[in-house]
Task: inverse folding
C-alpha cells in the first residue's frame, strides 16, 4: 500500500508510492499489448433458479493470462484499463465476445439462455456507448432480450439526469439492466425508482454475512423485499454453500450465482456443465 507522509504541511511521496505508480504504468503497457496479442479471454459463470438449481444464464467475466502464463484478476487490471481509457476498446471486445458466445449457445439448443455482461462506468459514459451496443447486437445477431448489462450501484448514483436518459436509451435496444454489487452504495428508493433497471444483484459480502449473526441477513432481506416492492428481479452473488442457499431460499430470493453451483467456466466447460445439468434433471 502506498502511503503519503505529512510533515510540516508538506506531502512527501513515499518510496512505495513511486513503485506503485511505476508498476501501474508498466501494467498499463502490458495490458495494451496483451489485449492486442489476444491474452484476454472470458469465463462464464452460470446463474441458477434457487428453487430448482436450474441454470437460466451466465455472467461473462474477463480474464487475463499474461505472456509468461500468470493470471491477473479483473479487480487488479480493470481499474488500470479504466484509468487509461483502454476499457472502451476492451469493453467493446468483451461485449462482442459474450454476444457471440450467446449465439453459439443458442445454436447448441440453449434457446432460453441469457448472457450478462459487466459494463464499466467509463465505458458507459462514452458518448457512443449506445451506438456501440446496437452495432454489437446487429453484427453478432444476438437477441437483445436475452442480454443483460451489469452496472455498479456506485455508478447508478452518479449524474442522475444523464444516467436516467442513457439507461432509457439502452433499454430501447431491448437489453435489460442489472445493478451489480447492490447494497454497497447508497441508492435512495426514489432514485432507484426513476432508473429503468430490471434486476438487483445482492453483493457477495451480504451473502457471506447471512449465516453469521442474527442481523447478518438483514441487508440481503432488505434487497429481496425492495426487489419485490419495485417489481425487480433479484439475484444473490457469491453463494458458496448450502446454508447460504437455504437461507436465501427461505427469504424468497429467486435467483443465485456462486461457487456452490459453479465457478466461472471456459465456453467448452460451460457447455459440458449445462449438458450435465440436463441429465441430472432428467434422472
Ligand atoms: P462482479 O461483477 O461482482 O463479479 C463477481 C465476482 O465474484 C467475480 O470475480 C466472480 O468470479 C466472483 N465469484 C463468483 N462466485 C463466487 C463465490 O461463490 N465466491 C467468491 N469468493 N467469489 C465468487 P472476478 O471474475 O474476479 O471479477 C471481479 C470483478 O471484476 C467483477 O465483479 C466486475 O466488477 C469486474 N469485471 C469482471 N469482468 C469484467 C468485464 O468484462 N468488464 C468490466 N467492466 N468489469 C469486469
Ligand atoms: Mg458483475
Ligand atoms: Mg457483483
Ligand atoms: Mg463484485
Result:
Amino acid at each position: 500500500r502506498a502511503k503519503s507522509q505529512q510533515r510540516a504541511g508538506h506531502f512527501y511521496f513515499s518510496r512505495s508510492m513511486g513503485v506503485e505508480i511505476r508498476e501501474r504504468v508498466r501494467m498499463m503497457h502490458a495490458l495494451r499489448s496483451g489485449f492486442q496479442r489476444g491474452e484476454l479471454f472470458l469465463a462464464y459463470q452460470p446463474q441458477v433458479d434457487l428453487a430448482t438449481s436450474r441454470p437460466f444464464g451466465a455472467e461473462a467475466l474477463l480474464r487475463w493470462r499474461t505472456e509468461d502464463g500468470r493470471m491477473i484478476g479483473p479487480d487488479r487490471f480493470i481499474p488500470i484499463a479504466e484509468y487509461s481509457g483502454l476499457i472502451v476498446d476492451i469493453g467493446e471486445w468483451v461485449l462482442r465476445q459474450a454476444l457471440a458466445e450467446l449465439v453459439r449457445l443458442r445454436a447448441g439448443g440453449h434457446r432460453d439462455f441469457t448472457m450478462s455482461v459487466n459494463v464499466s462506468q467509463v465505458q458507459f459514459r462514452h458518448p457512443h456507448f449506445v451506438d456501440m451496443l446496437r452495432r454489437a447486437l446487429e453484427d453478432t445477431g444476438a437477441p437483445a432480450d436475452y442480454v443483460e448489462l451489469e452496472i455498479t450501484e456506485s455508478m447508478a448514483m452518479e449524474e442522475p439526469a444523464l444516467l436516467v436518459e442513457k439507461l432509457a436509451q439502452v433499454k430501447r435496444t431491448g437489453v435489460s439492466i442489472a445493478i451489480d454489487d447492490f447494497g454497497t452504495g447508497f441508492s435512495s428508493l426514489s432514485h432507484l425508482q426513476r432508473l429503468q433497471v430490471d434486476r438487483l444483484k445482492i453483493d457477495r459480502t451480504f451473502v457471506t454475512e447471512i449465516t453469521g449473526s442474527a442481523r447478518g441477513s438483514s441487508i440481503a432481506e432488505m434487497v429481496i423485499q425492495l426487489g419485490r416492492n419495485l417489481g425487480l428481479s433479484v439475484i444473490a452473488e457469491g453463494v458458496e454453500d448450502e446454508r447460504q442457499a437455504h437461507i436465501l431460499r427461505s427469504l424468497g430470493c429467486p435467483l443465485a450465482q456462486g461457487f456452490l453451483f459453479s465457478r466461472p467456466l471456459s465456453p467448452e466447460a460451460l457447455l459440458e456443465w449445462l449438458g450435465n445439468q440436463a441429465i441430472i434433471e432428467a434422472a
Q: What stands out?
A: The longest helix spans residues 15-37.
